[in-house]
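Notebook, bench 3.
Goal today: get a predicted structure for DYW domain-containing protein from Urochloa decumbens so we can plan the truncation constructs. The sequence was checked against the plasmid map this morning, with no discrepancies at the termini. Length recorded as 550 residues. Pasting the sequence as submitted so the record is complete.
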Amino acid sequence: MMSPRAGAPPPCPRAHSPNALAQLHAALAKSGLSTCSATPATAAAAARACTRLRDIRAGRAVHGASAKLALLSASTLLPNALLHLYASSPGEHHLHLARLLFDTMPDRDAASYNILLTALAARGHVAEALELFDEMPEPSVRSWTALIAGFAQSGRPADALRVFRDMELAGVAPNEVTIVAVFVACADVGDLETGRKVHAYARRRGYGKSNVLVCNAAIDMYVKCGCVDAARAVFDAMENGRTVVSWSAMICGHAMHGEGDKALELFAAMRGRGVPPNGVTFVGLLHACSHMGLVDQGRAFFQSMEKDHGIAPEIEHYGCMVDLLSRAGRLQEALEFINGMPMEPNSVVWGALLGGARLHMDVEVGEKAIRRLAVLDPGNDGYYVVLSNIYANAGRWEDVARVRRAMKLRGVKKTRGWSAISVGGAVHEFTAGDCAHPQVTAICETLDRLLGEARRRGYAPDTSVVLLDVDDGEKERVLARHSEKLAVAFGLMATPPGTTLRVMKNLRVCSDCHAMMKVISEIAGREIVVRDRNRFHCFKNGVCSCRDYW
């Protein structure tokens, strides 16, 4: 985004009416404000109302009329209100207008910088946001927070945490809003160490129990970092301050971690307290029923949404129902459910059906699902891999080759899988067959010893997940160096005995790694928490918290 040339006039929209005062009065009236004599304060109130109503056209009218009436130079009150209008409106064009207005403001205050900072960071303009931040005379805690929150909201959690560490080095104490933003970033990258440290600070400052937003964000952070027990401790300590968001986050957390029974118990307690559920609550309940195989109870929850609570099911709830039916092997019923949906099913819905087809080795249903997915999400390689696995398990190798050719023809490339583990504050990332880590030799030796012991305990490699046209020996060698296995082997080497290992993976854990993790948890006497693209897998004493692999 280019800054305007020096000395350029402010971008004032041309007034559509020759009577600027009448135009401003019309905007004031539309926003429910008094039509008294126009002043910078009343014009600023009108601009704020237009922002609240998301009426950019009326806001531009306020801007044009204010310029004609020479109201813009009295103070920063009105320009900041207009800056917020443009910065919060969707589209790069409006962000560009916000930058133009900012660059041509005769006077700027901290609020002016913070408004633009937030918008730039939230839309991923990292370099420009940092440059603007460096221009600030004295960044306040609100300025630091604007930058951190913007990066966290725009899917740049690593940038958010880097700025937070710079904030700590600068000696600026975070406030409640900063803490919430940092929790969001920690949840996205699975940075439990930073999350715990910030939560301890929040408790020392008295935010740990009294501030509902901080507590809710802490619950979400702990859940997504694989510490559902810590999340539950925060929830239990909230006592009477819980909101529907608190209850729903905890219900979803238990469901994500395969603790469906706890999710259902918590919902019963929620109803006993008279707290009405929302749509998120039912997503958690349906997930819980799906992983526990409770088809009838899940169906009852789904039907009660509108009937008992006035909540219209959204496509996510329909996707949960398809997942519930598909996991239970009711694939034809799931197909009928999809055909009866009141909205067009999306790729998540068809993907749930494909997952059920893989679980129950139903080639016909898998082919039906992939035909729809090829149209809805043609670039997603994961669906083709699942169909290939279905064919491979059925011994249909010609069809496996056909799927591979179709992927090549359509330009679909297999996403490279990676797994990450945090040790001593540093994140170590591994890819399949990775030889780049400085301790790779020791890691592979550790992994080979684990594989040998696992075989003695009955583990047998599941070569069906390797779609390469090679012999079984080579397939086993490929499986032995999957990224999550490498990450766990390194974690066992680099942490004291008894330490829980927490691994993040960008794709689904394959069935072979899932089986191997169960055995490793028993061999090493460790709890291993793997967060993949779909869910959490908590391995302990040779058992996974999930009822089934899929």
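Residues 440-456 form the longest helix (17 residues). DSSP finds 28 helices and six strands in the chain.
Flagging this for group meeting.
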